[in-house]
Amino acid sequence: MNTGTPTPVILDVDTGVDDACALLLAALHPGIDLRGVTCVGGNAPLREVVANTLTVLDTCGREDVPVAAGAAVPLLEPYADARHVHGHDGMGDLDWHKSARRPDQRHAVELLRDLLVEAAEPVTLVPLAPLTNIALLLRTYPEAARGLARVVFMGGGAQAGNATASAEFNVFHDPEAAAVVLDACAELEVPVTMYGLDVFYGPRVSRAQVRDHLVDPGPAGLAARLIDFQCERFGSPDATIGDAGAVCAVLDPDGLSTTRLPVRVELAGTWSRGRTVVDLRDWDGDLAHDPHGQAPAVLDVALGVDGERYADLWWRTVSGSA
Q1: Structure pTM?
Q2: Which residues of the chain have pLDDT under 50?
Q3: Omega into 16 within 30° of 0, i.e. cis?
């Protein structure tokens, strides 16, 4: 658990119910020094993503955090949102009081560049969305990587998909961007942790747990209503905190079990486009005779999580009971 100097963090989001859960944690936990938030089209169109992001931060009293709009569409893939999961406005259609603040005038890639180049200490970048902004950053301004401590991204999976049977939504939405980011991080020697579907659904908060906070006008109430929305949408007594788990992994890495594994992104398969191909083989003979060779990107792939530990960390922080 991070109990010392706050970790400098930048989030890249497509807010999104679960992105909102992550923003609440990052904005409120004293172990995180939230330097900025960049936005990309994904769960909802970019305009709604920016509005939702500003609303969550303002609810937390974090008007000091710069927010910038980035890529509205993927590099090549046609845009498709996930409002069937997150509601028409992308954040549960909660009728929550909206922010009147405007985003930073810089493009997200320029804000990322400036924050990283000017950082006095390495920053942890936490992308929770399609990786379009990050691909553009690392190919346009590779020198910005010198300001990175590591990348902890929510995306992919070793065993499962959700957007398709093979692919997770964030990677499927812009597979070329994901492939570029993994290759660029390997070339620039930036450590990467993949917080994917193998652990995404582990940390869960119950509807009963949040019930007493539903009328709270502050962060606890927003957090409670986000959980309540998901329970209603999926007909479940509890809900995942989703992307917030990746922020928990920054705060409390001991709650996550990872294995160093080669990872590629499938770009051509009819049924598997956007799949993160995680190489789980453990015999050198197979690897030596693979005509494709080993993937250049070797990541810390999350394969196990202490869901109760992360859910407790999230709820205690966002409800103000920590």
Answers
A1: 0.95
A2: none
A3: yes
